[in-house]
Amino acid sequence: MEDAELASQPCYSVRLVRPFLTVMKRYPGFPVEVLASLETMDPDDRLPIAAMNELIGGGVALTGDPDLGLRAALAIEVGDYGALEYAARSAPTVADAIVVIGRFMRLVNDALDFRVEREGDNAVVHLESSIVLPRVCADFQSAALMVAERQSRQPGFSPEFQVLFTHARPEHTEVYEQVFSGGRLVFGAPFTGFIFDAAHLQRPLPTADHKLHTLLRRHAELLVAELPKAESVTERVRALIAEELSGGNPTIEHIASELHISPRTLGRKLGHEGTTFKDLLDDLRRRMAQRYVGGQDLGLSEIAFLLGFSQTTVFHRAFKRWTGQTPGDYRRERRG
């Protein structure tokens, strides 16, 4: 298989990057010349996700601020996300707005799968990126949606909700509490997203406008149709790893052979998308481990086997690294 056939790089819209530029310039001594070229770009220009995640990670290193993603979300203003935002804001209800966001997310982010599911009386919003994200970028995704929801919320309405993060609880959570005020923060969760009363889905939006919404949806459909197709190598590799985990052969050599390329080429392709084979294997094991431990009646030795660990003790160490808890403590807390 030729390189060009394997995939094109997933991209962000410049609209996603601009709030970071706004915040980074506030830090004394930050080399603003690093940002100059980005500030002159058209908001709907597109940039490879891997390059932008690296730039944002560099911003965290230069500012020394691990909460940079949360602060960037607070800098978002109404209208910053263009057609996607206005199509969602003009929708009749919260549920309709969520459908619009999921359908047209590619206008700003090729890698994010945004969807909502009903679980009993709850609505569960999943934010699943096909690219393994650093904490700063994952925090920004959740916080940006929270800011947008507040900007379109009916005055005086304050719903109860939970915010879920897959990373462990950081030492300081003051900025999280500011951004997600009124919500319950859940760290070390099996997925990134939100949980709230499903009745909220049918609430009308104060910014609803049927005629404008119809026009904007048509416009968004045309914009999405014009985007280059992004086929992520990461997604394909993640699916192959999942097939091979249980007693299989989830090695880079085997997965590369399934794709008819060399391990070196596969490593390079994943690097272009901002990840590594090791990171993908670890991330997939973490996600599945949290779901198995927290939600299913499987013994820990069975879970270790299903995830391809040779020994239960190795699985225990990995789980503690992922969540800051032992599997037993994690299971008791979730079921409690």
Overview of the structural elements:
This protein has 336 residues and is of the alpha+beta class. The chain folds into two domains: 215 residues, H-NOX domain; 103 residues, Homeodomain-like (Arc Repressor Mutant, subunit A), CATH 1.10.10.60. It is built from 17 helices and seven strands. The longest helix has 19 residues. The N terminus is likely disordered.
Name the features.
single chain; 336 residues; alpha+beta; H-NOX domain; Arc Repressor Mutant, subunit A; 2 domains; 5-stranded mixed β-sheet; two-stranded antiparallel sheet; globular; disordered N terminus
Total beta strands: 7
Q: Percent helix among the residues?
A: 40-55%
- CATH topology-level fold name of the largest domain: H-NOX domain
Total number of distinct structural domains = 2
Named at the architecture level, the CATH assignment of the largest domain is: Alpha-Beta Complex
Q: Rg, please?
A: 21 Å
Task: Calculate the terminal CA-CA distance, rounded to whole Å.
Answer: 50 Å
Mean pLDDT: 87
Structural class: alpha+beta
What percent strand?
Answer: 5-15%
Spatial shape:
globular
Report on the biggest sheet: 5 strands, mixed
**Order of H and E elements:** HEHHEHHHHEEHEHEEHHHHHHHH
- The CATH class label of the largest domain is Alpha Beta
Low-confidence stretches: 1-7
Q: Given the structure, what is the number of helices?
A: 17
What is the spatial order of strands in the main beta sheet?
3-4-7-5-6
